[in-house]
Predict the structure.
Amino acid sequence: MNTSIEILVIEDNPSDLELTMHALTKYNLANKIHVARDGEEALDFLFCRGAFSGRDPESPPRIVLLDLKLPKVDGLDVLRAIKADRRTKAVPVVIMTSSNQQRDMVESYQLGVNSYIQKPINFVEFQEVIQKLGYYWLVVNKPPPSGAFH
Amino acid sequence: MNLRDAPIRQKVTWVIMLTSTVVLFVTAAVFMTYEVIAFHRSLVQNSQTIAQITAAQSSAAVEFEDDKVCQEILSKLKEEPTILLAALYGRDGKMMARYPASSPVGFFPSAPELQKYKIQEGALNIFVPVKQENLMVGTLYLEWDLSPAYRHLRWYAEMVALVLIGSMGIALAISHWLQRRISVPILELAETAGKISRSGDYSVQARKYGNDELGQFTDSFNHMLAQIHAQNEALRKNEEQLRGALQTAETAAAEVRTLNTELEERVTHRTAELAAMNKELEAFAYSVSHDLRAPLRHIDAFAQILEEEIQKNPDRVPHYLSRIRVGAQNMGRLVDDLLKLSRVGRVEPKFEAVRLTAVVEEVLAELKDEVANRDIEWRIAELPSASVDPGLIKQAFANLISNAVKYSRTRARAVIEIGVELVDGETAIFIRDNGVGFNMQYAHKLFGVFQRLHRMEDFEGTGIGLATVQRIIRLHGGRIWVNAELDKGATFHFTLKGIEAARRI
């Protein structure tokens, strides 16, 4: 395993972030996590711009957990940017949202989201979802070979 | 020239002349024939009477063959100058006496003829039997000179011819006069008709000369002309009316088109309004599903964690409790802001003259506690009066001013400026701060419901305030826009339809 970031969490709400981190920590998935607090920061991180200009763009995270409701650039725009770029289009993106709007779901799938999860109101269920999600994408799922999309 | 093509006056003359001439000739011929026959009969009768008298006188002399007496009797015939020759023949047909006695025998017929009379070589020859007690004893021959009679007839014929010529002259004169009476009205009619056909002016009338058929024809013609004229007038009027109607119709069509265009514009405008409203409604639904669920989720989750951690990490308890409270507060604020937003537009605005400066002062008074620990330099210019809804305009000012206060709180000394200036000829109110500002790239999202340009942890907020302000400004027939620069501050401008022109700027 390399030292690159494994999980990129894009979440602006501090409470949501804390809950996500709490769940990830509980199941020992909290290694190598980067948190972006809005869409702009997330894109800067992914495409190594601005504050992240020193990062290697060829080392994308293994999974992106994306909230839809974000300041400045919203979640769907972030998803669009990820799936439109050669360097990041292979990165699995999991949308985690409070929204149960069909419109969001349809658009997300059209943009190529890999998984769409509505955050359960019940926190026990939420933790289970985070656990399954981390296990599946980081352990069960085989990532594309490095350089497959270059 | 063909009679058919001859002028009507000639035709009339011809007709009259021909008729009168034929009549005159026939009359004269009949007259003359009768005259000749009558003359002839009377001549013959007359001659026979004289012959019979002479024959009667000479019967005894002939019976007794007394030539001398016979001669004497014949010589008395000189009383009748037209008797050229006379002779008496005896029973045996031998000439007994002749008159004039000197004339040669060769002039007479050698023997009596059976024919009673015959006319030859301008003379009438008569043979009359001489009878004595119904017994024929001889024959008397008389030859009459017909030239005086023919002279008389010729004179008579000349008279007739003279009368004929005179009559024809009179007929010609009469025909000329009659012809004028008949042809002049016809010619005039023809001329009138020609004039009309050339000029197309049906308002003229033909002159009437009498109450005959021509007069009736002229009346009919004039009546026809008057009718045509009236019909033409009616047609012209109809045409004018039609043209007028057409023009009216065209005008109406143009109006309809204009109205249609207006209607289309209104429909487009209304559709845009409805679309905007729909978008807001969708955003509202979105918020209910997303923004309103989030704090509930948080409260539930942190309560759960608190339950788990309360034994293991008692020092973390206050943190989780504060998280629960934040969730509840967020929930409350969202509900409040949504209520405010939904009230704008649901309640019909009541416009009245409001001093905007007074509104600003009111808002500042209410913000007093919030800015108590802040160093803010207020630069507030005198604002004009405007016809606005006082409650709504106060809410707009409150949202904008509290935004300015909120986003400038990282400044050691905040500068907030409220004033009025002309922008593109329009009076615009502005609220300027020297706060954190934002990237103009995201300016289009600023007035959308639940759209935020700042992280929750940096600046709290629901993303409803500016949407509410925009809705209020639109209700006042104005528009709102923003200029900002990241880390330099933001300036909000808005116009109001009911604003009093600030002439002093």
User: Anything to note?
Assistant: Residues 201-289 of chain B form one domain.
